[in-house]
Write a structure and sequence with these properties.
Layout: E1 2-7, E2 14-19, H1 27-44, H2 54-73, H3 78-104, H4 110-118
Antiparallel strand pairs: 1-2
Helix pairs in contact: 1-2, 2-3, 3-4
């Protein structure tokens, strides 16, 4: 749900408007949000020398998954929607590959790896 606050100039009253957007109710959208938050938490544990490399790449890809799903849902043509959804799926693969390298470098533990692999059923 998006909250927008508008101020009317005539009498300076504050009006709040809520947009009920359909994509926010989709399971895949809710999962992608959880995925993005989880990626931020996981990368918080990475070594500081990865701050401007792997950490940013994983976080950016996780955010792109979520944002491309949202933007894809707003497109009218099926072809255009699918293009955004495929981009989102590609970002999931990117995160998976990066976390695989992170695991091999001992930046993550097996529990995180198992969580990731078990919860990608939507993609």
């Amino acid at each position: 749900m998006l909250q927008i606050q508008l101020i009317h100039n005539s009498n300076s009253q504050l009006t709040t408007m809520f947009l009920q957007l359909a994509h926010t109710k989709l399971n895949v959208y809710q999962f992608s949000q959880a995925l993005a938050l989880e990626c931020y938490k996981i990368t918080h544990q990475f070594p500081t020398e990865e701050k401007f490399a792997m950490v940013q790449q994983i976080r950016r890809a996780a955010l792109f998954v979520h944002l491309n799903l949202a933007e894809g849902c707003s497109r009218k043509s099926k072809v255009e929607r699918n293009r955004y959804f495929e981009t989102s799926r590609g970002s999931v693969i990117e995160i998976d590959a990066a976390l695989d390298i992170a695991y091999k470098l001992s930046y993550t533990n097996m529990a995180i790896e198992a969580y990731w692999r078990c919860n990608c059923k939507y993609f």
